[in-house]
Write a structure and sequence with these properties.
Length: 395
Amino acid sequence: MATCLSYDKLRELNTNFAVWLYQTLLNMENRTNLVVSPSSVASSLGLLQFGARGNTLKQMENVLGYSVHDDSVQEFMKTMFSGLTSSSQNTVIHLACALFVQQGTPFSSNFLRHVALWANSSLHFANFREPSKTATQINQWVNSNTGRGIQNMVPCDDFSPTFTQIALVSTMYFKSTWKTKFSVDDTQTLPFTSIDGSIVNVPMMHQMAEVSYGQYQTPSLGRFSVVELPYPGNTVSMFVIRPLDRNTPLSCIETNLTSKSLALWTSNMKRIKMDVFLPRFKLQSHTDLRNVLPALGAPDLFDLQKADFKGISEQNGLYISQAIHKAEIEVAEGGTRASGVTSMVILKRSRMPVFKADRPFLFFLRQASSDYAIKKKWKTLRACPLTSQLHRVLL
């Protein structure tokens, strides 16, 4: 993969990975609510590419769609990561990646150089023969890199004193106020229809504001609407997507989600004054990447016999024994905290619209400069793509 990639192509590949990761998690895990930060997972895989060789390297390149050894990729990632580790106008974004390695392991000086330059990455020695101390060490690092938002990420029984050699940990922390805040006085308890059809009462926030909004219809997705809720500075926004028809399951949108469709929807929205209703919620997900990354096409890095990390150390038998991803997001009145050819019809509005997220919906946070997603989803409360982050809410 020595081809020089354009900035636009790399943005597309990043969002492709975000959507692919999200859809893979949906297929693998029977969770109502899901939160994942593809940007932090991708930064981890990018860092590991510097130390991987042979088939292990090829698998990670295929999963991400690019090689970090390309100068164009490194320049793009430098720009993206600088935007993902910043603070401005009441918005904090912090991306971090750490490798915890068995103490005494000799490292390649070239790999250490890449660690120092890559996405706020760091390398730590740990004694996996003392699982309790190692778990405390990792949890303290996670705590300090997520604004104390994520506690007790790893239990001590996650580590094998005999076989654990490298633990890969990545975090994404996001905290911001809304550009237009929801008033606490306007929040009321309203019904939310869960994915199974049951009704639950949830605290529903409300605001009347001018927002970017679109109603669309495609043969595969049916009718759906999208609203953008920006944060101060307009560099990061939350996009909320939900079917217009109550009988249309959210899965229709999820299974047909692509980077091109996301770009198409967000570029065709119109400014309009409307009533917006959004549940107040907090979501958290813990994902073992040892199951997910092999499903994406990268099994060798976890295989004691096949892993090739001679770029990290000449020591034999080096492999990734732990790869943990934990993400959370909290949405409240004051703001948010988070640790081909497409056929589309734009529907015309017949009256002042009301966007009411009172049934399963998908939302993602997008950084304007990178188009890489933090994705989340609410069905019963589930989450989906910062740069893009995806979330799902099902309640």
